[in-house]
Amino acid sequence: MQYRKMGVRIPWEASALGFGCMRFPTKKILGFIKKVDEAEAIRILRYAIDNGVNYVDTAYGYHGGKSEVIVGKALQGGYRQKVHLVTKLPMWKVKVASDVEKFCREQLKKLQTDHLDVYLFHGLNKGRFQLVKELGLVFEMEKLKQMGLIEHFGFSFHDNFQVFKEIVDYHDWEACQIQWNYLDQDTQATTNGLEYAAGKGVAVVIMEPLKGGRLANPTAEVKAIFDNAPVQRTPVDWALQFVWNRPEVSLLLSGMSAFAQVKQNLEHASSSGAGKLSAGELDVLKQVSDVFRKAILIPCTACEYCMPCPSGVAIPRNFAILNSYSTHEDLKRAKKEYAKLAKSKDALNAAKDNGMAALCSKCMKCLEKCPQAIDIPGTLEKVNAVLGGTVPIEQAFPKED
């Protein structure tokens, strides 16, 4: 395992590969209800730690609140002492300043620990940052440090570069977490934001290095580019090495959901390093990003922050089917997959998370939850029109010139 510095204010080094606990392995109960496979989640997390991963990241809402509990169990038996543990303050639940300590103590109990190594404001955007300022929440975080409940604090982020820069300039942050990969160099915090935060001494942690798994599944055109590259790598390795290539990156988080993924990512991390990619390799990724950018019509990363949907719509699944059609151009298969989803409220399963896009009631509750700022109701309407066969994809999702 390779280790990297955590900015200038955190004294320890982090493993280049961090374990993101948002996508633990799941299994089906009674044939349709997905539930975290707790035993397997603990097994793969401990395997990662045994092989050098020392940064574990979770959050209050991951897996419907179960992630922190499972992480707490996994870190028993001496594993807590081997890692730097990170979780996030659920900003959508914060109403008063005292909520910071309240939620922190609740999370410490679930995690079965007496302190956090890093505590992050979760998903700061313009609105949530305003709340941080109005309620004096940075001061509340400082109080948690004085009480010994946390060692360091920072924020995770989903908005644009201008908002990111304003947040970075507001405080001498110790860490930040941003979405960045070879497709997202000019979106959200952007490459400029990565450089800006690192230049001010902030440890920059990268999430979504595979853009919700999309970069792991290349189209035929992308595969051909990789096949002709001067260096042969898997699509996953290409994406991860791109992130690790930047010296400003402290580590990247991978939401690993299978033992094979853990083993492969550990191998990729062992050969990682800043400045290792040649100009030719970077050009390959430029070509690939151009192709991917044209094919991916909906920028959903399947984070499931929008779930559960009050109407039972399987929002990420609907978007995935449309994107699969867009990238692989198999309309028959896409329609078949779409038809498997529930067409009515009566057809919804017990979890009420298998509905097709047509069930969207436009309640708008999902809009403020989406880190990618997708117009979910409007996009679901387009998905239904395309996969329902009433509108061609080119009309519903016209390509930019």
Write the layout of secondary structure elements.
Blueprint (H helix, E strand, L loop, with lengths): L2 E3 L7 E3 L1 E4 L5 E4 L3 E4 L1 H13 L4 E3 L8 H9 L9 E6 L9 H13 L4 E9 L1 H10 L1 H10 L3 E8 L3 H10 L4 E5 L10 H10 L3 E5 L12 H8 L7 H10 L4 E6 L4 H12 L8 H17 L19 H14 L2 H9 L36 H12 L5 H4 L5
Parallel strand pairs: 3-6, 3-12, 6-7, 7-8, 8-9, 9-10, 10-11, 11-12
Antiparallel strand pairs: 1-2, 4-5
Helix pairs in contact: 1-2, 1-10, 6-7, 8-11, 12-13, 12-14
What does this structure look like?
The chain is an alpha/beta fold. The chain folds into 2 domains: 3-295, Alpha-Beta Barrel (TIM Barrel); 315-396, no CATH class. It has 15 helices and 12 strands. It has helices at 38-50, 66-74, 99-111, 126-135, 137-146, 161-170, 190-199, 220-227, 235-244, 259-270, 279-295, 315-328, 331-339, 376-387, 393-396, and strands at 3-5, 13-15, 17-20, 26-29, 33-36, 55-57, 84-89, 116-124, 150-157, 175-179, 203-207, 249-254. The strands form 3 sheets. Strands 3-6-7-8-9-10-11-12 form an 8-stranded parallel β-barrel, surrounded by 6 helices. The chain has a two-stranded antiparallel ribbon with strand order 1-2. β9 (150-157), α6 (161-170) and β10 (175-179) form a beta-alpha-beta unit. α12 (315-328) packs antiparallel against α13 (331-339). The longest helix is centred in the C-terminal third of the chain and has 17 residues, at 279-295. The relative contact order is 0.10. The model has no long low-confidence stretch (mean pLDDT 91).
